[in-house]
Amino acid sequence: MSRTDFHLGPSPAAAGTAPLTGVNLLITRPVMPASRTATRVAALGAVPFVFPTTIIEPPANAAPLATALAQLPRDYAAIFVSPSAAEMTLAPMGSAPRKLPESLRVFAPGPGTAEELQRLGVATVVIPESTFDSEGLLALPALQAAAVSGRRIAIFRGNDGRELLREALTLRGAVVDAITAYHRRAPQTPPTGLLELLRSKQINAISAMSSDAVTHLVALVPESERSALLVSLPVYASHERIAAIARAAGFRRVIETGPGDAGLITALLAHGAT
Description:
The protein is α/β, with parallel strands linked by helices and 274 residues long. The chain has two domains: 134 residues, Rossmann fold; 129 residues, Rossmann fold (3-Layer(aba) Sandwich), CATH 3.40.50. Helices cover 37% and strands 18% of the residues. It has twelve helices and eleven strands. The strands form two sheets. Strands 1-3-2-9-10-11 form a six-stranded mixed sheet, with helices on both faces. A five-stranded mixed sheet has the order 4-8-7-5-6. Strand 7, helix 7 and strand 8 form a beta-alpha-beta unit. Helix 3 packs parallel to helix 4. It starts with 5 loop residues before the first strand and ends with a helix. The N terminus is likely disordered.
């Protein structure tokens, strides 16, 4: 999972009549979810260029994760904060998916993470009814104080995840265990392929589904070239927080999308690469 750039070419659908023909999309997600995004947009005629600007690795110390998984039968709920949290907890590095206790309530912040959990064999996943984020999760009746007080909740997240869920659920009386299921970092290899694509004007749209995706991407492009090569491109941001970071980084056209691949594709169909 350490490979940082590769190109998935156009599908047969990209013959000139598909709805996303002409969209050359830079996908910045980690490798596994990026490959699924690439397949979906290519089927609609886009040309996807996959360059993960966040690398996902196992935690340096896997013991807390193993302990948390062993204790799940006693837990009220498990919250997976991202597709990577689901993947690295339930099927790390391509192993067979682990089964969760049938009595466990499973929560995800949005449909993208829920889709990953269901792909890994979790039949029932609860997602927010309002906003697809931690705030939306905290608004759910099943996570209010009356439901969680005195009960154990496991949160599976990355190494530097937000503290909002843990802090709010603790205040509601839950016994919360926040477990590092994966470590994320910026790429450490030279971004030669990415810079070649930008300099040759082969990319005309960018997908960003995490805040790290934006900050790491900007850092990969020399400051002297960012204005000409990068920030003039439209960025499709899957949350208002990500959109705000993209604007702060200098991107001139930021399109806020719905969550996950469905939100990205809907926005691409509406706006394309213009």
